[in-house]
Amino acid sequence: MEFKTxxxxxxxxxxxxxxxxxxxxxxxxxxxxxxxxxxGRKQKAVATKVGDVWWxxxxxxxxxxEVIEPGASSADDEGGLSAPMPGKILEVHVSVGQSVKxxxxxxxxxxxxxxxxxxxxxxxxxxxxxxxxxxxVPQGAELLSLGE
Amino acid sequence: xxxxxxxxxxxxxxxxxLRACREAGIEGVAIYASNDTGTLFTELADLSVxxxxxxxxxxxxxxxxxxxxxxxxxxxxxxxxxxxLSERADFAQAVMxxxxxxxxxxxxxxxxxxxxxxxxxxxxxxxxxxxxGEEVTGGLEEVLQIAPSVGYPLLLKATAGGGGKGMxxxxxxxxxxxxxxxxxxxxxNAFGDDRIYVExxxxxxxxxxxxxxxxxxxxxxxxxxxxxxxxxxxxKVFEExxxxxxxxxxxxxxxxxxxxxxxxxxxxxxxxxEFLVTPEGEFFFLExxxxxxxxxxxxxxxxxVDLVREQLRIxxxxxxxxxxxxMRGHAIEVRLYAEDPSNNFLPAIGKLKKFxxxxxxxxxxxxxxxxxxxxxxxxxxxxxxxIVWAPSREEALQRMGxxxxxxxxxxxxxxxxxxxxxxxxxxxxxxxxxTDMIDRLWPDGWSPDISEQMSNAGLLIAxxxxxxxxxxxxxxxxxxxxxxxxxxxxxxxxx
Lengths: 148, 495
Description:
The complex is a heterodimer of chains A (about 150) and B (about 500).
Chain A: E1 2-5, E2 8-11, E3 15-17, E4 20-23, E5 26-29, E6 34-38, E7 41-50, E8 53-58, E9 61-67, E10 87-92, E11 99-100, E12 105-111, E13 114-119, E14 124-129, E15 136-137, E16 144-147
Antiparallel strand pairs in A: 1-2, 1-9, 3-4, 4-5, 5-6, 6-7, 7-8, 8-9, 10-12, 10-15, 11-14, 12-13, 14-16
Chain B: E1 4-7, H1 11-24, E2 27-32, H2 40-44, E3 47-50, H3 55-58, H4 63-72, E4 77-79, H5 89-97, E5 101-102, H6 107-114, H7 116-125, E6 133-136, H8 139-150, E7 154-158, E8 168-170, H9 176-191, E9 196-200, E10 206-214, E11 220-232, E12 235-241, H10 248-264, E13 269-277, E14 283-289, H11 296-303, H12 307-315, E15 330-337, E16 339-340, E17 346-347, E18 350-351, E19 354-356, E20 363-367, E21 374-375, E22 382-390, H13 393-406, E23 408-410, H14 416-422, H15 426-429, H16 437-441, H17 452-468, H18 486-493
Parallel strand pairs in B: 1-2, 1-4, 2-3, 4-5
Antiparallel strand pairs in B: 6-9, 7-8, 7-9, 10-11, 10-13, 11-12, 12-15, 13-14, 15-22, 16-17, 18-21, 19-23, 20-22
């Protein structure tokens, strides 16, 4: 399973035993409640998913991990059309002024040798295209703007 | 005695006041903008009325509309809370002109304290120490003449100005002439007025304020100090009482000065006199806040006085109820903001998918939000005030640390971990808190320091939750069979 964190992409390969998962001497017990066990000491954790991101609270720390579904990356619920990670624009499928429908592929970008489709989260009109084919984009860069 | 009060505010402070009204047997009327529909404070009121319009100017700052609602709903009084209309003398006057009771000081007192120059002159006349400084009208020569009596380092400010234009810090006599010329030139260009003001620059000073209460019967008391030095972007984040910088003698001197300040404007109700205190123990009047303050709970914890109940009592024409004060222990308040400390403390938004507040001995939470609420850019990003009380400062810091560890907020980035680490920061533990502390220690913002083990633990938890569809699993009491079995997902995603 792969996640995106502030330090980049991390792959995790945990061992499973029923409802428990272990990794490097740590164990997490899932169920209605989450319990993290390190060296036999248990502490409660709280986690919830917002969009593709797992928010985790444990030991006074709050962390975020974005689940990476290989192959496609669509715009999030808020309609923001930003680069999910640093990469290169491979294709631009639309032009300024064009009407698009929710689900239309607007751009294709490449990151970490994987292609990500930038998909319209709602119906609208393309108001601006901020990058061209071949451009490198930083993470979070707004790629297109879509109006009502 | 008040019977029905309109609370002209929202969120946390509206909750605080409405609860006090309920305890005092006063009916509370809430007003709310459409984007506050269904929030906590609207439920704590006996009656909630939706404001027409959008944006602050049409809603919470709309004097005519708010006053009309108060009249239409049969209120006899209005409590403005803090912010919004709380320091608007014209609103206070309009409320009184309508025959209602304004829960706060007189419009004249608000005006006198609201204008910085008037306040300065009034305080000087009342014998309250003000920051040494003089207005210069006679040009450069007069600046050079006055400067030595003000003392170095000093600050040159445009009398007409603001926003840093025409403002120059001068540390040495040698630099005075060139800096004064520059300041006057800047002031003339920016404001068409080259009058400047020479004021002592107080570096490394603390922001300490004194809470006062005054009733209609001439009784004025002070309730000790609050130390509010830890600030970011000129907003307080950590407040405590008592201050480590004050001994009994200085506390009494500042308390007396604060009472003199209140007396000079015939103050009524709860108010706060802010001072700058230098490392040498000199103190200077900064301003008076003519309202209840965000950080009032720390005073309540150490004095045992309910400041909002006293406001209601005093406004209703009664004498204040507190006798001689017996201050005990130590109280700390932190402000939980929806903001990203790693992104220079800029506001964050999101939905509070999890909001689990700490509890236990000596812990108080004042908030206007609940789990499930959305944090929007429409209003102030303060989500909650967490207040602890303990017998000593050391124990209060430990208790605050413990409480912040328990505080779970997921779905919106907050400063909770930053606040947690403040509790064990050597400067805080040793009491070396100054107003420039955050800027000095973390000039580029603050990022959490998470051990690799904790980071891996977080990752493991996320992976386990993803595999088991955590949180979407119904308990055995759930009856819906349309929810897909989580086991199919587990098999597919995890080897």
